[in-house]
Amino acid sequence: MRTATTWLDGVPSLDSRDLRDVQRISCTLLDRLAGDRDLLTRLVSEVLRDPERLAASRVTLLLNRLSLYQAADRGFEIRLNMNPRPGNQRVAHDHCYAFATRILTGGYVHVVRRRTNGWDGPFTGADLEPGIVTIERPGSAYTLGEAMVHQAVMEPDTVTLFVRGPRRKQRSHAAQELMPGKETWPAPAQPGEQAVESRPVTVDEYMRMRDYLIQRRLTN
């Protein structure tokens, strides 16, 4: 299922190797969507009726997310991140894609690390040096490429808009010795299942996330 035609259908492709292009397009997109409460509400509501977006909405060891809009033909997906797990935020990691994010509520300490063992492949905490440390608050936005390693230690009420570009690497990496223990991973969706680092949301979890957004007046 696709959302009804909106201005999102006119957003240019994010399939660019120039991070400046990705930043320019992404920041305009996120700023406009953050100010379009009716469209944000519609996108959240449509997730429940779209099996593809519901399956792409996840409960992870770092936070929960809804997949709001998918544009594979233009190389991007828009997500809404929330419910961060503060005890699991310290693990340094990279991504398979360039991305941009905009903070709607809450905030966090954001640390971008410098790798000392090259720009790709696995790494440990010993391979990282301090880079840039910023305090992100509502309205803050930034863009990172797939080679960058970062940490975001979020406040409990943090909600962010997030847009990712196309996959550029086979897999992402994290400092394994800093990974949260399995006892902190999301609870299984069904009794008897194994806990995993990331799994699709259940309908009940989606409903709680939708209500969470309404209560905080981010959607109608």
UniProtKB/TrEMBL annotation:
Highest taxon listed in the record's lineage: Bacteria
Disordered: annotated span: 167-198
Official protein name in the record: Cysteine dioxygenase
Naturally occurring in which organism (per UniProt): Streptomyces chiangmaiensis
Lineage: Bacteria, Bacillati, Actinomycetota, Actinomycetes, Kitasatosporales
